[in-house]
User: What shape does this take?
Amino acid sequence: MNLIERYVNEIARRLPKRQRDDVRRELRSALGDALDNRVEGEASEDEVVELLREFGPPETVAASYRPQDQYLIGPALYPTFKTVTSVVFTVLVVLAVVGFGLDLVLEPPVGGRVFGWLLGLLTGLWDTALSAFALIVLVFALLQRFAEDESEDESWDPRQLPEATDADLVGRGEAIFGIVLPLVFLALLNLFRNHFGVRVEPSGELLLNDVFQANLPLVNVALGLGILLNILLLRTGRWTWPSRLFDWAIDLYWIWVLFTIAGEVAASKATLVGGGVPEAVAEMFVRLVTLLPWFVALLVILGVAKTLYRGLRSGGHPVPSSAA
Amino acid sequence: MAEKPQPASAVDKLALELRRGTLALAVLSQLRESRHGYSLVRRLSERGLEVEQGTLYPLLRRLDEQGLLNSRWDVAGSRPRKYYTLSRQGAEALAAMTGLWRDLVRTTRKLLDETPGGSDEPD
Assistant: This one.
């Protein structure tokens, strides 16, 4: 196939199907005209090459045919995306280093198993990093898709800008912390899922690890939602009605998760005793675990009450309304 | 307009943006009568505007899709050619853009005349 045909095809295959034939036909004709204009008779290969070079690489030409503002993550979101990604990756690397150290102490690999152990850890880190990155891209792509038109809204009224009080503002550091902390827990709990439970000496048996593992997905969801909330806060820079409600919904969900876990731990008292934990210690442990959700619930109620009280005192509505 | 191998400087980038910004206006201005892509390239070139052809054909297509141009294929000649003419909407856009352009030139010239060293540039 001649060079012009190959060039035109390379451009056309990068375009939507419905455009292809027309563009191919037009470029073929345009290149033919250009060649006729500079060469008498049959053009040599070098002359065709020179013409195509002037036209530009197929990728560039094809890109000019496409709409100009197609983004997975656009310029407005990109800086935040970069911040979040670098923070997440730094945390993952730090965790991996700490985790490798811990693992080395807890279960030192012996002899020929060292290579397998190292490979296992590295693939674990790779998987975690990859899923973390995929998750971040997904969240930002969704933000891009659904929060895009805000900046192009011409009917916006400066008088409707929310009167954010200091208490409503969310600092960048605060939001990033709110992303990093749950992420640390997420990584820690999942990387070391086999180490959580009640260890009984001297047998070294790990009890209740099954309860922990069974409920880990519920905890993952709660932590993930917290990360999502803080990404939103990082973007808006302040609390709004929807974000506060989202926050309270996450708190409610946490309380439910804690009650579920506490219930299962209480039901496993016999396992603890059977595994060698003294009856009185098991009793105390179960009581403490059962009290925990109540304690958290109390803290949440206090927090909500404080927000509402402050909002009521400062002008009738608890948070600056974004729906106004 | 030979491509320079070294990375584009800030001036090159600005110049490129400036040229690209005016290209649509230049193209619209020459399509009061029907032309195919290559004849448009030559006409612009004769009048001192060298365009990158790889940019021109996509631009023509975009203007066509925006309804500013009408296009039709002519298969009668030695090779089939796609001809473009201003649509009514395109003629209105050209008139509006021409006014805008003249204002912009006037304002920019005034701004440049105030700046020492910026006044001796011709159009």
Chain B has a mean pLDDT of 88.
